[in-house]
Amino acid sequence: MSIEINGVGKRFGNFVALDDINLHIPTGELVALLGPSGCGKTTLLRIIAGMETADSGHVSFAGEEATHLHARERKVGFVFQHYALFRHMSVFENVAFGLRVKPRQERPSPAEIHRRVTNLLKLVQLDWLAERYPSQLSGGQRQRIALARALAVEPKVLLLDEPFGALDTKVRKELRRWLRRLHDEVHISSVFVTHDQEEALEVADRVVVMNHGRIEQIGTPDEVYSNPASPFVYQFLGNVNVFRNRVHGAWAEIARDADGEAPEAAEPPAGERGHQALAFVRPHDIDIEAAPLAGGIEAMVQDVHAIGPLVRVELAHASELVEVELTRERANVLRLQEGQRVWLKPRQVKVFNVPADALEEGGSGI
After folding, report:
1. In contact, 202 and 194? CB cutoff 8 Å
2. Which regions of the chain does DSSP assign to beta strands (E)?
3. Region 95-121: what's the mean pLDDT?
4. Residue 24, CB half-sphere, CA atoms under 13 Å: how many?
5. What residues are paired with 297 via a beta bridge?
6. Based on the number of CB atoms within 10 Å of its own CB, is 357 exposed (0-12), middle (13-18) or buried (19 or more)?
């Protein structure tokens, strides 16, 4: 079932939680609402669920107005961050609960309830724990039971609020891969809230990046990561070096190669020449050379430390700290030492023009 959100706004006193939100979610798509705490993502999820009322705008399911429908009438399944399982009920009864409390005319027979619950427990690969209680399960197992319970009532839409937020890193990674596979099996329209960039990029079909109650960008994981629409999106999605600069001519004078050409993607928007600008370069998009490099940026090595398959190098340029990520093979060739002078060459640069008063005083002046 598709979801249509048009002009939705929500205030809590003087605080603007949502400001004119417009979003279309096609049937069967898995969408991530991504952003920092307080950006409005959970409020939007609760409005879709009918747990919160919008001050303005409309919510439609499959083209039918749902703005004023009660949560019970929307046929949504909701999965909370902290499971919300009934401690006194077995795993089986937790999953069966939504079916047993349906109105008599809608309630399945006991045999049908048993069949559905058994099939769902097999789907989440926990049928062998049917008679246990929540206190006897791990965090990852509890969350899978919570998801099975949400699916038991056969919702048209599945909503998940930070579903893996209470779990440790290893379990989070396992469960988000499992959620992606499960979604591909049941193919239900799903929306999940997260502040974990890696989680959103790995699991979702599309990512909705939010900030201060507004949508900054909507796109596939590759689109929002590779072509961020704003400085906020660029900085929020992964590590980044930010260089202060003034745009000259047709490109940002950050670094030139031996032929005097600008790095890829360094050209500013048309009609904004001579404006103050911020240049963004991801740590893995910077080369390091030990010998002087024409057009390179001179820097001094401050620290070198290995992190798994990568080596992270921190360098000082003017008053700025620059971070570069190298493969272990490249780091072994360079043999970098603290205090060593090197030259940096950005391979891909993204420039955003900003008002002069939006930049802090000082900076690298690149």
Report:
1. no
2. 3-12, 15-25, 30-34, 56-61, 64-65, 76-79, 157-161, 189-194, 206-211, 214-219, 241-248, 251-252, 276-281, 286-289, 297-307, 310-317, 320-327, 341-346, 350-353
3. 91
4. 3
5. 344
6. exposed
Q: What is the pLDDT of residues 233-272, one digit of tens each?
A: 999 998 898 877 544 433 345 544 434 454 444 454 554 5
Residue of 105, 114, 100, 180 whose CA lies nearest to 147? 180
Confidence (pTM): 0.82
- 335 within 8 A of 328, measured Cβ to Cβ: no
Rounded-to-integer distance, Cα 331 and Cα 311, Å: 7
**Strand, helix or coil at 197?**
helix
- Tell me the pLDDT band of 29, cut-offs 50, 70 and 90: very high
3-state secondary structure of 160: strand
Top-confidence range, 28-42, 246-260, 338-352: 28-42
What whole-number distance in Å separates Cα of residue 163 and Cα of residue 112?
28
pLDDT given at position 275: 55
**Residue entry with tokens 């890829």:** 264
Q: Give dist(CA 251, CA 249) in Å, integer.
A: 6
Q: Rounded distance, CA 160 to CA 78, Å?
A: 6
Within 10 angstroms of residue 10's Cβ, the number of other Cβ atoms is 22
**Residue 49, Cβ neighbours under 10 Å: how many?**
18
CA 251 to chain centre: 31
CA distance 16 to 9: 8
Give the model confidence (pLDDT) of 143-178 as tens digits. Answer: 889 888 888 888 889 999 988 776 777 777 888 888
b (16+ CB within 10 A) / e for 299-323 = bebeebeeeeebbbbbbebeebebb
Distance CA 57, CA 59 (A): 7
